[in-house]
Amino acid sequence: MKCALISNPQKYEVQQVLQQTLAWAQDKEIDCYIDQQTAESLTIVKSSNLHFCQGDASAIEASDLLIVIGGDGTMLYAARLARGLEKPILGINSGHLGFMNDVSIEEMYSALDALIEKDYTLDYRYFLESIDQEGNFYYALNEYLFTRRDSSSMINIDAEYDGALINTYWSDGLIVASPTGSTAYNLSAGGPIVMPGSGVLVVTPVNPHTLTTRPLVLPSDKELRISIPKSNPPVIFSCDGVLKPISEYPFSIHIKKSTSRIPLVHLTNHSYFDTLRKKLMWGQDSRRT
Questions:
Q1: Which one, of 265, 256, 218, lies nearest residue 140 by Cα?
Q2: What's the CATH number for 128-258?
């Protein structure tokens, strides 16, 4: 078994978990691949089973599976690098919320041992895929975001589904989220939680002018078209938090479910609802503690 170790060395809470993972790998005689700069920044010493690579992409290419240590931001970064390879990804949460990195530090060793024993299933998460009017492709595991920039004015965004107009949104922005991304910015903006694998996408306005403009859940087998007219103030377009410059207006983009996916390692004793209860503290009452 060959593992790529992906983390953000700038995050202090990552360091101890990464060192513990390396010690586990050495004890189990598992080959690990890690970005050389990450290793040097954490003063990790090269060993017979630890291989330094020129970048995280090279480490992923050399491995059979990925161990991602951190929060969902690090997982999104790893997913972008691993898109199309379909290598299993285990997420160990050393950050805060972490819906995709759902293995806690306390569960870390049992989860790592499950990799060796192959005592897990794979939870496939699909990307959203889009193409703009200039033929540029974009991929997002969580969401696309269209929001205002350098202006206090609301922006107008047209949304069409399967050729039919949904609405002209007058708001601070618009989120188009996958089921995986439903617990990210979409949830903060008042959108619904959608179970992964549901085959839908969610359209959620950010602070809409009309209060009756509510989030909308659509089947992902047909195209959603987002259009931004030339008269708008400048608009920020981002994919999973990565900014993509809009070169000209009017701007339009077609969005649908991609065939690209990543397989997340799902432990046999975990369920999606366990994660929701734990992360969102459902059923907990401070009056009873």
A1: 256
A2: 2.60.200.30
Domain 2-119+268-288 sits in CATH 3.40.50.10330: yes
DSSP assignment of 216-248 equals EEEETTS-EEEEE-TTSPPEEEEETTEEE---S
Residue 191 tokens, joined: 């959108």
Of 35, 72, 123, 132, which residue is the catalytic one?
72
Domain boundaries, the chain: 2-119+268-288, 128-258
pTM of the model: 0.92
| pLDDT tens-digit map of 190-214 | 999 999 999 999 999 999 999 899 9
Distance CA 224, CA 218 (A): 9
64 included as an active-site residue: no
Q: How far apart are CA 261 and CA 117, in angstroms?
A: 24
pLDDT tens digits for range 219-232: 999 999 999 998 78
